[in-house]
């Protein structure tokens, strides 16, 4: 069965505008996600997950983001956190990951402190941009360890339960509004030793090829696939918008219709070419990985480069086209406006930004 089907598309798009206004996922949409296990695409089957191969999951993330940017972002972020199953203690994973409503919100920014105590750690800190904070069943945070021993100053991640966290509803970005990517706070929260993990350490629990794929290109490709889906939706919606304007434009200024349609065709073609390069780079690295050979820098750099290139192609194309679509697309409640804003915010993620000037 196709994971992102007509029922999901119709349900999510019907609620998209209200979810943006409410700044969180609709309860019915969340129920559909839980039923389809869309937050568990990288969660081990032993704890109720789906556990897809990386290339297959990337296409699901793209399709989800094509339906709606906030929906796709949360499916991708929620599933991506399943990677932590292989670096946490197996008993903790069985305890925390099995719930039907499983979703991890968190931050990789080392903005907390972990003080070693008997049996675990006391956690204090503040972490911004925790996508899905309003419905998370678990939070992961990154801290510097303060223990007056050899661990002092090291950075490690920890799992916190919802009752240990307070959510500050401060996500006021101009796109991806329904992701509830808020700041979280923890004070004197006790975390047992088994809830500590290190995503860069060797990982062999709940074995699967995804868990041995290098984490940074894994995360970069996941986010890139989300921007691909949003950009694909933008070009598709733009085409429908232009077709709706054709009669009026052809009657008054036929050269406008031809010019705008040409802009659409040229920018969409460039984007689709970059999309193909992205999936080709992922496939090449994945096949090398499956054959038991280390994924070398050539393949990994190719995945990261193509991730950034396709995000830029989608955003640049939307920017080139948007200002030619008329005044109505400037209104926040216009569907193209929402897609445009979502694309800007998704492509702003640090993993997709190239500051070398090579793209």
Short description, anyone?
The chain is 50% helix and 16% strand. The protein is built from 10 helices and 7 strands.
Q: What can you tell me about this protein's structure?
A:
- The chain is α+β, with helices and mostly antiparallel strands.
- The protein folds into three domains: 6-86, Acyl-CoA dehydrogenase/oxidase, N-terminal domain (Butyryl-Coa Dehydrogenase, subunit A, domain 1); 103-197, Butyryl-CoA Dehydrogenase, subunit A, domain 2 (Beta Barrel); 213-352, Butyryl-CoA Dehydrogenase, subunit A, domain 3.
- Helix content is 50%, strand content 16%.
- It has helices at 6-22, 27-36, 54-67, 69-80, 90-96, 209-212, 215-252, 254-290, 297-322, 335-347; strands at residues 104-117, 120-130, 138-146, 155-160, 166-168, 182-192, 196-197.
- The protein has a seven-stranded mixed sheet.
- The two termini are 38 Å apart.
- 46% of the residues are buried.
- The mean pLDDT is 93.
CATH architecture of the largest domain: Up-down Bundle
* Counted beta strands: 7
The Cα radius of gyration reads: 21 Å
CATH class of the largest domain: Mainly Alpha
Measured between the Cα atoms of the first and last residue, the distance is: 38 Å
Identify low-pLDDT runs.
none
Task: Give the full name of the CATH homologous superfamily of the largest domain.
Answer: Butyryl-CoA Dehydrogenase, subunit A, domain 3
Mean pLDDT: 93
Class inferred from helices and paired strands: alpha+beta
């Amino acid at each position: 069965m196709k994971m992102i089907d007509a029922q999901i598309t119709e349900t999510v798009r019907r609620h998209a505008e209200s979810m943006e206004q409410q700044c969180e996922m609709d309860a019915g949409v969340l129920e559909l996600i839980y039923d389809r296990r869309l937050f568990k695409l990288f969660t081990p089957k032993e704890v109720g997950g789906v556990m897809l191969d990386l290339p297959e999951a990337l296409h699901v993330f793209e399709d989800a983001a094509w339906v709606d940017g906030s929906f796709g972002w949360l499916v991708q972020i929620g599933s991506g956190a399943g990677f932590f199953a292989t670096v946490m203690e197996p008993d903790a994973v069985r305890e925390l990951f099995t719930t039907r409503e499983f979703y991890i919100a968190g931050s990789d920014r080392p903005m907390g402190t972990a003080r070693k105590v008997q049996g675990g750690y006391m956690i204090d800190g503040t972490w911004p941009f925790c996508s899905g904070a309003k419905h998370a069943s678990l939070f992961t945070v990154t801290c510097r360890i303060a223990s007056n021993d050899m661990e002092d100053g090291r950075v490690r991640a920890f799992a916190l339960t919802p009752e240990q966290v307070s959510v500050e509803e401060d996500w006021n970005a101009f796109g991806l509004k329904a992701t509830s990517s808020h700041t979280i706070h923890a004070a004197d929260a006790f975390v047992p030793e088994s809830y500590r993990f290190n995503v860069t350490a060797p990982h062999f629990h709940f074995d699967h090829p995804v868990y041995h794929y290098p984490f940074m290109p894994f995360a970069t490709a996941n986010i890139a696939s989300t921007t691909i889906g949003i950009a694909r939706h933008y070009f598709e919606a733009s085409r429908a918008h232009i077709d709706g304007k054709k009669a009026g434009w052809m009657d008054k200024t036929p050269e406008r219709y031809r010019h705008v349609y040409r802009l659409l065709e040229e920018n969409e073609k460039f984007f689709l070419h970059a999309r193909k390069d992205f999936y080709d780079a992922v496939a090449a690295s994945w096949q090398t990985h499956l054959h038991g050979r280390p994924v070398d820098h050539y393949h990994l750099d190719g995945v990261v480069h193509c991730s950034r290139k396709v995000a830029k192609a989608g955003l640049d194309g939307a920017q080139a086209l948007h200002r030619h679509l008329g005044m109505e697309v400037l209104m926040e409640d216009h569907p193209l406006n929402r897609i445009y804003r979502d694309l800007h915010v998704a492509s702003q993620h640090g993993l997709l930004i190239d500051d070398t000037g090579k793209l």
